[in-house]
Protein 1
Amino acid sequence: MENRPKIIVTGGAGFIGSHTVIELIEAGYLPIIIDNFSNSQEWIIDRMCILTQSKITYYSVDCKSYETMHELFSGLGDIAGVIHFAAFKSVGESVASPLKYYNNNIISLATILQLVLDFKIPKLVFSSSCTVYGQANQLPVTELTPVKAAESPYGYTKQVGEQMINDTIKEGAVILRYFNPIGAHSSGLIGELPIGKPENLVPYITQTAIGIRKQLQIYGNDYNTSDGTCLRDYIHVVDLAKAHVKALKFLDDNNTTETFNVGTGKGISVLEMVKTFETVNNVKLNYKIVPRREGDIEQIYADTTKANSILKWKAQYGIKEALRDAWNWELNIQQMKLSA
Ligand code: UD1
């Protein structure tokens, strides 16, 4: 008889989802993955099984499909919670194809919320983003920092998503505003798998270092920061994954709906990331400074007091560990390609 609390993890084969599934298993939960594999690979789940020495149940289903999801949930018995990761996340793509983002991110969340109500599921954890703050006037940002007009359809789906949850669930939801997730599992077995050319800094760094990309372009060194490059709050994906477990535990004892920043509290510049990557991994990176990227904000980092005190969560790792793990993962993918 299985008596671990069942947690549905939509997008559980993705970057943050897969790391969270590992942490859930380690914390004694029974995660059940629902993923349509539109931006993830099924073999990652095999790796997750190896890593946890357990069998992981997953369903290849699209979260937007209410009937299929309803049937699936009906067959699962008691569901203790849902962690909803499944969403598109490319800022640039969302500007080019806004309806793709509104259709996918909003409808899948509406479907999940309906199912949470239908099945009286007591806990929901939602992936939001620091993008909701835009360029804040005051740093670090707290959860009370005003949300700015969204600069991309992607950002708008996160703002609307938060509103949808606040309107629907008054008792039993946690909204996590992620800062910049980076790194990989220290085992080297799972990590980020960008499709095509990465938009994000760290996968671009690792792909340049391994020779897939010729050169990293640093977007602007004329910002009003210590070295002129943008500042972000980079958080190790394993730390971020652990915040989801803490969110479930928080909902054990609290019938509320709360929003938390999940970052480290430190603003790190792009150049500092590049230099740290070179130092910790002892590799040289080919890079050059180019003009600013449209839509980038100058700087953002989190005030994490609320998550520290209420969720009892704090980031354990810094960028050194994250950049070491990201490189280890890139080397692993390379190894896998060579032996395929
Ligand atoms: C963006 C979104 C964030 C989203 C994340 C996921 C905003 C404000 N932020 O984060 O909400 O969750 O994408 O995709 O919309 N950089 C380079 N060269 C590169 C790539 C990046 O210099 O090749 C720089 C950027 O200018 C930026 C930093 O690295 O200063 C981080 O960029 P990136 O990893 O793309 O994340 P954000 O834009 O911060």
Protein 2
Amino acid sequence: MTATVAKFLWLACSVLWFAVRLEPRRRARKTAVRHSARNTREIILLACSLGGLGILPLAYVAAGFPRFADYPFVPLQGYLGTVVFLGALWVIYRTHRDLGRNWSVSLDLRERHTLVTTGIYARVRHPMYAGFWLMALAQLLLLSNWIVGPAGLAGFGALFFGRVQREEDMMIAAFGEEYRSYMQRTARVVPWLY
Ligand code: SAH
């Protein structure tokens, strides 16, 4: 594997991610939002994530920018990155299937919102974010550039750490004891660990 092939694989997997997300997004949007905790801070955090996981790597794959930060590509990182990205896509696909119309790109509660605690949500409360962490890790492995590689981890990390507590507070406000007891039997992202 070469650096160019790895860039292409990053792009192909990203297109797949977009495809996986299309139908759930269309379906969820049909259900009105009853309560939203979106604010300026949320929009800034979403922009960080989009920049790190989307815009920067796209610019890199398309134009090679910023070339000065390139480092020599090791084929093993390309193979590992591809496997991790495919794993991320599988996790994200499963979360959409289980979350159904309760999904939202930001902090929203929809009409007749239900608390999902089964399927991929049985052990961790934020499996979709786990999927995005994996995507960011895959980017680090696939793109051999000191700036663009880690940009996904930094951008998504900002969104995750800036959001997760607010999301859980919102879920507690909406579902009370039901969410509290769900929290007690689950980890945030990594089963049994965190
Ligand atoms: N944090 C979750 C969901 C991300 S989508 C994950 O990583 O898998 C974000 C939206 O999902 C939030 O607006 C919230 O309303 C909703 N949500 C989060 N956890 C949920 C759950 N267990 N059941 C139903 N909806 C949930």
